């Protein structure tokens, strides 16, 4: 089906919010993760929101984030065209002061949505910078949603570490949405970026509920987002979704699953790749003078990448079922 844009994504979020389920928006740091995510989403009939950050785009573009975003967006678009569910792309955590990359994201028209991050700035500056991005998108008449963040979330994100956090104030959230016109609002309720253990977090689902109610009381039907959901227990995810949050961001889990799967595979097949004791490590001659030789069936990148794709597909099916998006695709 056609790769989906902002207007379709808005419909997906509205249905999730009114029906009481959510989406685990999944960051892709490598294309095999993307392939696995699409496969897993199709398996359980869940629409899929994938996310790319600036550092990932820069890596894909050999240091150039604009080139990298074009590469990854094209990859997402082509896989989305062949998928049986809706596939959407969000550009995640773009610093508000990175004007060049922001303008490139918007001008490309590729992403379904864009998350502009000025949450570390004072409130008025956050409002000003966020509103500026919203106006840029609308002035160009791009079919693209804008997400912004109010509140500070601890942890490492995009190479920047935040050591302090503060919870989002409901009335301030109303003012922020009203003045900026953002389509989605990421709030701080005690989650953390990076590796965290849910039991160690001071989660405040009540804040999400209060923010959602305050917005509704002012006639604002703005979907809420929670960043940093890796490490949360099933019950904690359920608590958050019961408050009206319809988008939970997950990144670290997929990176770990990639590394863990590759590590286990190469441990199991070490004897097919590394020369045994007593055999010279003749990489240049490719062990032409030795009785032993590596097994191409095991060292070809496709072999381990297929394992990674399968594992990521399993994880995606699992988290979609947990979040309630399984079986809810608008396109099935």
TrEMBL record:
NCBIfam families in the cross-refs: Fbpase2_Halo
One MF annotation (Gene Ontology) recorded for this entry: fructose-bisphosphate aldolase activity
Enzyme Commission identifier(s): 4.1.2.13
Root EC class: lyase
Record's keyword terms, sorted: Lyase
Domain of life of the organism encoding this protein: Archaea
Pfam families, alphabetized: F_bP_aldolase
Protein name according to UniProt: Class II fructose-bisphosphate aldolase
């Amino acid at each position: 089906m056609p790769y989906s844009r902002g207007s379709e994504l808005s419909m997906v979020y509205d249905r999730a919010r009114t029906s009481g389920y959510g989406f685990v928006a999944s960051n892709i740091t490598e294309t095999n993760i993307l392939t696995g995510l699409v496969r897993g989403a199709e398996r359980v009939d869940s629409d899929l929101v994938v996310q790319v950050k600036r550092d990932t785009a820069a890596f894909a573009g050999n240091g150039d984030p604009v080139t990298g975003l074009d590469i990854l967006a094209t990859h997402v678009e082509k896989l989305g065209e062949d998928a049986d569910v809706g596939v959407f792309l969000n550009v995640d955590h773009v610093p508000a002061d990175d004007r060049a990359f922001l303008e490139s994201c918007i001008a490309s028209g590729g992403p379904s949505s864009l998350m502009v991050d000025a949450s570390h700035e004072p409130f008025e500056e956050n409002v000003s910078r966020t509103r500026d991005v919203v106006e840029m998108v609308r002035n160009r008449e791009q079919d693209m949603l804008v997400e912004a963040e109010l509140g500070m979330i601890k942890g490492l994100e995009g190479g920047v570490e935040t050591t302090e956090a503060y919870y989002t104030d409901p009335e301030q959230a109303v003012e922020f949405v009203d003045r900026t016109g953002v389509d989605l609002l990421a709030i701080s309720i005690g989650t953390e970026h990076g590796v965290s253990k849910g039991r160690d977090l001071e989660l405040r689902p009540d804040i999400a509920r209060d923010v959602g109610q305050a917005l509704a009381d002012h006639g604002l039907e703005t979907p809420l987002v929670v960043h940093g959901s890796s490490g949360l227990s099933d019950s904690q995810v359920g608590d958050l979704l019961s408050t009206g949050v319809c988008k939970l961001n997950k990144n670290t889990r997929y990176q770990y699953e990639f590394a863990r799967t590759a590590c286990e595979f190469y441990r199991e097949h070490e004897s097919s790749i590394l020369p045994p004791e007593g055999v010279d490590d003749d990489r240049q001659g490719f062990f032409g003078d030795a009785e032993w030789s590596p097994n191409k069936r095991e060292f070809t990148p496709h072999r381990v990448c297929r394992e990674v794709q399968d594992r990521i597909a399993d994880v995606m099916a699992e988290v979609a079922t947990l979040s309630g998006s399984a079986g809810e695709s608008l396109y099935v």
